[in-house]
Amino acid sequence: MTDMTPEAARDALADAARTSDRLRARARWASTKLAVTGIGMGLLTLAVGLVRSDLVGFAVFGAWGMLIAATAWWERRRTAHLPGTQQRTSRYWAASFALYAVAIACGVARPEGDAGFWVPAAVVVALPMVVGAVRERRA
After folding, report:
1. Which residues of the chain have pLDDT under 70?
2. Where are the transmembrane segments (predicted)?
3. 3-class DSSP state for residue 35?
4. How far is residue 29's CA from residue 37's CA, in Å, rounded to a whole number?
């Protein structure tokens, strides 16, 4: 074993810090996925409440399915992961889906196309994932 000089030790620590920063930057994909799917879920909620055409409704659900498939494919290609990402993000997903279910259940009793209900409902449904995206970006 060779002795390391103080300069070599400083260089090694600086290199490790740069590598760590690069890895953390590459591992921030989860925040992007949360933001995209949160906004998509809000738009889906709007479409469910405001769109009356069966064809357009079918197209919206098809687009939602394609968005989920695309983000799943994109996620599989990410090579860097921060520890605990799944545990942190799963609660935001659960909250948005629970709020979506509440919005749908409460929206059934609303008059057809009631924007006064569906626009705030869409914001409330998207909010947990958008908040999660911001918080995950800082993780």
Report:
1. 1-2, 26
2. 30-49, 55-73, 93-111, 117-134
3. helix
4. 12
Is residue 46 a contact partner of residue 114, using CB atoms and an 8 Å limit? no
Q: At what angle do helices 54-76 and 29-50 cross, to 10 degrees?
A: 170
Q: How far is CA 114 from CA 38, 48, 107, 132, in A?
A: 22, 11, 9, 28
Do 34 and 129 touch, CB atoms closer than 8 A? yes
Is residue 136 within 8 Å of residue 85, measured between CB atoms?
Answer: yes
Report the alpha-carbon distance of residue 113 to residue 105 in Å, rounded.
Answer: 15
Range 44-76 burial, b when 16+ CB lie within 10 A, else e? bbbbbbebeeeeeeeebeeebeebeeebeeeee
Any idea which residue has 């908040």 for tokens? Answer: 131
Question: Minimal CA–CA distance to 137: which of 24, 6, 22, 48?
Answer: 24
pTM of the model: 0.78
> CA 58 to CA 120: how far, in whole Å?
23
Return the pLDDT at 1.
Answer: 54
Tell me the two tokens of residue 108. Answer: 């059934």
